[in-house]
Amino acid sequence: MNVSRIAILGVALIAGAGAFVLMLSQNKDITPVQIVEPVREETVRVMVSSRDIQRGERLGAEATSWVTWPKKAVQPTFITEDNEAAREDLESAVARSLIVMGEPIVNAKLVRAGSSGLMAAILAPGMRAVTMRVSPETSSGGFILPGDKVDIMVAGGRGSTAPARTIFEDVRVLAVDTLFSENTEASHVAGSNVTLELAPTDAEAFIAARDSGSLSLVLRSIFKPETELQATDRRSSNVSVIRYGRS
């Protein structure tokens, strides 16, 4: 064998051995990869509304459904599948206020069978419900709906020269006849009775004014005026506004 070939072969063997030793030393410095299994999040089944439930509407089986909810995000007011006490008598419960689709059902928005009536339940704490008969002329043409805000004006009646005056401002309308829904699809309701929410002292003054004069309801805009002048600059000079009270 040629001496040069033997030399080349020896160099190749030495280089290969060096590469093998270098590879072994590098493998010792490599940190082994740890496979971490994801932690499975604990969940709870929560009752939610499957459609919009209007105020005064009963909860039926078709109006609610169960969805999976992260347990750490469940509030104490939620109705869960393992809470038998909260699920009792739900079929006969009535919505105290609007419940939108997908919203968790909570007891604070329900009136259960055997508890106070719906009107007593939707009243704000400390407030009173009063009713007055209206006509299209005294109720903004019938466009006053539950949930609207109105001003109450009083006049001396036919033949009276006394100016009309506002006795209550920003009063919430609870119902028109027996309609409680705040989101009714009707554009107007030609009702004959309107139920209003007033403070106890204002309710006394309202009844006195109702029995002694002619009351009218004036529908308020849902938008606040930018300045007070914009809200009053079209007021007639023969109308005096008295901020008697507030609901």
From TrEMBL:
One Pfam family of this chain: SAF
Occurrences of domain SAF (ranges): 44-111
InterPro entries assigned to the protein according to its UniProt record, in alphabetical order: Pilus_assmbl_Flp-typ_CpaB, RcpC_dom, SAF
Stated name of the protein: Flp pilus assembly protein CpaB
